[in-house]
Design brief:
The protein is built from eleven helices and twelve strands. By secondary structure, it is of the alpha+beta class. The strands form five sheets. Strands 3-2-9 form a three-stranded antiparallel sheet. The protein has a three-stranded antiparallel sheet with strand order 4-5-6, with no helix packed on it. The protein has a two-stranded antiparallel ribbon with strand order 1-12. Helix 1 packs across helix 2. The protein is extended and about 105 Å long. It starts with about 40 loop residues before the first helix and ends in a 13-residue tail after the last helix.
């Protein structure tokens, strides 16, 4: 029986509360014609979390798949650069908090989003200076997640199961923009600062692999759990078979011996079996013959490759990521990696959005307490690690030829300087270099008097450019 089983079976659930509880709680009832929520059942969701953790701990394929996602998304770290020094100071103070240590926490966020499909982090705010400290709640402790009834794009609350300290479940409000114009920092004090337009709440809830009308995220391993487990079982069975195939035993023939004499001999040999290099002494009525165990078992290499490739395809990881090029050359490997990089960049974009939600909340807590000037430029850049691996020498040559072509087109009057800048900047962005050219800067032609930036990753010799004039400061 599959380790997880098929979750796709449709079930008709008339209600989510017992019949005798209708008077006390009708929030979980729905109309007969209303679409059922897209979440897994509570039992299936908990089983998914347990199985995902089990596979990560004991299955090498699942273990490596989850870690590849984490390593590529936040492997080399994330940097935050604010436009204003005061904002940068607030971010740095939060980022270097000795409790949550954002560099480590981001690795955990990326890891648990892949493993569990969700990450829950309560935010503790100092009521005096607005400092924010993050905590952690395991998805296994979550009883339910509620969407905003007026907008399914927003989460409303996270219900936490009872603990040893508390016998009742508790609800945490998910952090969102405050839309109540009468909301105040202290609900009991109408003279306290207004929180309208600022982010308020108790916790962050981040999820992945979630459809629009579902409230909980799903593990990256959900769709492939049965197959990676089947591959595990197939490999262990093959190892056990190979162990038996290499074994051998003694066939001992005792002519004329009774059953009692044979059993007595067996007991003697079990108590003191013959050691390697020892000798045997017997008469002509006893014969010792070594026998090799022969199992007519089929080779399961093709089956194991089929299951493995199917599982890796479901995880969005090319096979050469797992040291199995299968005859693929460099060009084939690069083309095979392109879909994987797109998938990783998509997850990285989600994590970047989560980081922005956290930082916006941190800044809001300072602003609402008047710890920062509301007129400050609160914008900042989240610099994520680059995922795509490119042939920089070949790309540099293409940039050189493009720049020369643009210079020629500009000299001939086919394009103007502004159009040339946009084309050249678009090529730099392909290398992950964000460049914003001002109108006063001219098109950096690379004919004979200008050179490419040194930090692009290739030398002038690689692209055949000789020059003594540097590019504008924004490109260096």
């Amino acid at each position: 029986m599959p380790i997880l089983g098929r979750i796709a079976k449709r079930r008709l659930v008339e209600a989510a509360v017992p019949v005798d509880d209708t008077a006390s709680d009708t929030s979980r009832w729905r109309r007969l014609t209303e679409k059922a929520p897209r979440n897994l059942s509570d039992y299936d969701h908990k089983r998914m979390l347990d199985i995902a953790l089990y596979l990560y701990r004991f299955n090498p394929l699942a273990h490596r798949g989850v870690e590849i996602m984490r390593d590529f998304v936040v492997g080399s770290g994330i940097r935050i650069e604010a436009k204003d020094k005061s904002i940068q100071s607030v971010i740095d103070r939060f980022w270097n908090n000795p409790v949550h240590k954002m560099d480590r926490l981001l690795a955990r966020i990326a890891f648990e989003l892949s493993l569990y499909g969700e990450f829950i982090s309560p935010a503790l705010v100092n009521r005096h200076n607005g400092d924010v400290e993050l905590s952690y709640i395991s998805p296994l402790q979550v009883k339910d997640v509620t969407l905003n009834r007026g907008n399914l794009l927003l989460f409303d609350s996270v219900e936490i199961m009872p603990t040893d300290i508390s016998t009742e479940s508790s609800k945490l409000k998910v952090i969102n923009l405050e839309t109540d114009v009468e909301a105040h920092l202290d609900p009991e004090d109408p003279n306290s600062p207004s929180t309208y337009g600022y982010r308020t709440g108790d916790c962050f809830y981040f999820s992945v692999n979630r459809v629009g009308d579902a409230s909980r995220g799903l593990s990256d391993l959900l769709a492939v759990a049965d197959f990676v487990d089947s591959l595990d079982q197939l490999i262990f069975n093959s190892l056990e078979r190979m162990t038996h195939e290499t074994g051998w035993l003694w066939d001992i023939e005792m002519q004329g011996a009774s059953n009692e004499q044979c059993q007595q001999k067996v007991a003697e040999l079990e108590a003191a079996p013959p050691r390697p290099g020892s000798f045997l002494v017997h008469n002509e009525w006893v014969k010792w013959n070594p026998m090799k165990i022969g199992l007519e078992a089929e080779n399961v290499t093709d089956e194991s490759l089929l299951i493995r490739n199917y599982a890796l395809g479901g995880m969005g990881v090319p096979v050469h990521f797992f040291s199995e090029p299968q005859g693929a050359g460099r060009a084939v490997a690069e083309s095979m990696a392109a879909p994987a990089y797109q998938s990783l960049e998509s997850r990285q974009s989600e994590v970047e959005g989560f980081v922005r939600e956290i930082l916006d909340f941190v800044i809001d807590q300072k602003l609402v307490r008047k710890m920062l000037d509301s007129n400050l430029d609160r914008s900042y850049d989240v610099i994520m690690p680059k995922i795509s691996l490119r042939n920089l020498q070949r790309t540099g040559g293409a940039m050189n030829r493009t720049a020369q072509a643009l210079k020629t087109a500009q000299d001939e009057g086919w394009i103007d300087s502004e159009q040339g800048k946009k084309v050249f900047v678009a090529m730099l962005e392909q290398l992950g270099l964000g460049v914003d050219l001002t109108p006063s800067q001219e098109l950096p032609g690379v004919a004979s008097s200008q050179r490419l930036p040194s930090d692009v990753g290739f030398s002038q010799a690689d692209v055949g450019v000789a020059s003594s004039q540097e590019l504008p400061k924004e490109l260096r």
